[in-house]
Amino acid sequence: MSQASIVEFVRELYQTNDFIPLHAPKFDGNEQKYVLETIQSTFVSSVGKFVDEFEKKIESYTGSAKAVATVNGTAALHASLYMAGVQHGDFVITQALTFVATCNALYHMGAEPIFVDVSPISLGLCPKAVDEFLTQHAIVTDTGCMHKQTKRPIRAVVPMHTFGHPVELDELIAVCRKWNLTLVEDAAESLGSFYKGKHTGTLGDFGAVSFNGNKIITTGGGGMVLCKTAELGAHTKHVTTTAKVPHPYEFYHDEAGFNYRMPNLNAALGCAQMEVLEQYLIEKRELASRYQDFFAKGDFKFVVEPEYAMSNYWLNAVICPSAQARDTLLKQTNESGVMTRPIWQLMHRLPMFKNAPRGELTQSEHIEMHLINLPSSPISI
Ligand SMILES: *Cc1c(COP(=O)(O)O)cnc(C)c1O
């Protein structure tokens, strides 16, 4: 299979000779109507019916006990880690193969990442690798899990469902129980992805979703914390909205809170986008299946959902036979107006995380060198 035939195939999928982006938002539902309604009502900011409505829609779709809307996915992660009790000086186990926001959120809690390898099946955090790292480097004490060498607490595990493909959650939950760790799912990319019938982000203590412009649905910018219980949900809402104690006119705040609330204007967009999510999921599955057929012959390996999961196929990906084939494909496609992208550089290569402890990262390094993301906007079918 030649790189040129890939360009041709993508052009055929999208039926256009124009530039093809990696993932473009689509507003062909009630977006204009709802957004206009917020403007006309003047309730564009922190008060308004769409925030509540959007949270309820996400709760009923994901099965989360309480969903809390935030300004973006990074804020949702930050609030999740705060709620999970991550403290200054703690370690948090995560994958090196992720978008930088995962690590920024824990860094701004005063914590430091520990990088563990990903599974070749999910491209997300590998439960076995986590257990092996902990067996070698940690002990469980009266106060929780401790990193032996530094005597610092290891507080939480943050897996990321890469491109929407759910990680092996049952196994990861078992590892977290064994080592007394809190599980926070970075579900930024996985709205619409299910693990054994359960929505990603609802199996851990907290899950963080993103509605950035390139995600499966968008609110312009936005995020959501999925909380395990109504009580944790109420506290999360409180702390993400300045922790003000309700009173007709007094200002009293009982905790150092965040101003992370999602504006009503953005939530209006979210409500309209939730109405078309199911349709996008169908279109994206169809797109993925066409890519899968196309790549079935040849030595480029299309990334498919793990057998235990129903993935949203947020970003389609292919593993190239060599680093050189990857570079050629990147160059050819982008020069031909078909946008493709390499995966993120591994987190331990970035200056702020270069000294973080890490296990073996064989799979992460292989994927980093060989993977390319392909155009993934929903197609008309
Ligand atoms: C998009 C994304 C985020 C952050 O979401 P924002 O809404 O852009 O802040 C976090 N983690 C991962 C893995 C993401 O892809």
Automatic annotation (TrEMBL):
Keywords: Aminotransferase, Pyridoxal phosphate, Transferase
Listed transmembrane segments: none
Keyword Nuclease: no
MF terms in GO: transaminase activity
Pfam families named in the record: DegT_DnrJ_EryC1
Keyword Transferase: yes
Family assignment from sequence similarity: Belongs to the DegT/DnrJ/EryC1 family.
Family matches, as NCBIfam families: NHT_00031 (TIGR04181)
Entry protein name: LegC family aminotransferase
Species annotation: Motilimonas cestriensis
